Amino acid sequence: MLSARELTKVYNGTPVVYNVSFDLQPGTVTAFLGPNGAGKSTTLRMLTGLTRPTHGQSWFAGRHYTAWPNPAHVAGVLLDASATHPGRTGRSHLRNTAILAGVPTSRVDEVLNEVGLADAGGKKIGKYSLGMRQRLGLAQALLTRPPVLILDEPINGLDPEGIRSIRTLLRNHAAAGGTVLLSSHVLSEVDQTADRVLMIGNGQIVADGPLRELVSSQQSVARGPDSARLAQVLRDAGIGVQPTPDGAVFANATPERVSDVAFKAGVQIHNITEYQQSLEEIFFRLAGGQQRR
Ligand SMILES: Nc1ncnc2c1ncn2[C@@H]1O[C@H](COP(=O)(O)OP(=O)(O)OP(=O)(O)O)[C@@H](O)[C@H]1O
């Protein structure tokens, strides 16, 4: 299990990460979501010992990352995909990393294959596209077959096929009992990948929960033969309503409440569904309104 307690980082008197706590369980993919500058990278750097917290602690299976004799075997980390020598080939970069981590070099071709770089292993990293560098960073993180993956924006720069293959890879890692924490500032990137979302805004966790719970709303979209009458009876019951462009009624109440009110007023409803908030809407509701400390 990966745990963080009250992780806080203060730069020049300003907290850029404040009181961030979570526990991540094996078998799960967690997305760490927030806009640019929200504090995602700083948190990941604190977890992996690259930045010293001003306050708070974190543990991988009971010990801080850097307290493990060979941390690369505890967690595979991708923090900055550009931190590689451009004159080396992808394969030679991974071979060096494998030797340092005590991994047989036969693993290098395996992992190049896993991330879809089998044909590019002999090419100089300087000639790699951003997406290829992301894949190489991921290959490096996977080299030791670590139980935990900590990935900063791993999907950034990938084409749709790349996104699909990384999603599958991360889901498979979790299905095999691994723990994945990936950051992103693009909500749609993680909506088919993550079981759980930790949203961070201005350095603080603003939401934490399964994706399904975060997207559920207390709002409905109802359709009936007489939308104007339906809207009127809902309004009379104190429910905020709005017509939708396609002739339905958007109501600020659960489908159960809307159905009850309409039934009592004798107004027909043909179809009613809970309104599904997009991740963008949730994010801006929760994080967008936060004031900087
Ligand atoms: N070494 C540093 N010194 C001073 N301020 C820093 C330092 N590192 C990060 N910051 C500031 O901390 C805040 C959080 O940055 P961080 O990189 O953690 O955000 P992020 O959510 O990862 O954003 P991005 O998606 O842009 O990488 C930003 O305002 C950033 O300018």
From TrEMBL:
Gene3D superfamilies: P-loop containing nucleotide triphosphate hydrolases. SMART domains: AAA. Coiled coil: none annotated. GO terms for molecular function: ATP binding. This is ABC transporter ATP-binding protein. Belongs to the ABC transporter superfamily. It holds the Pfam family ABC_tran. Keywords: ATP-binding, Nucleotide-binding, Transport. Residues 2-227 form the ABC transporter domain.
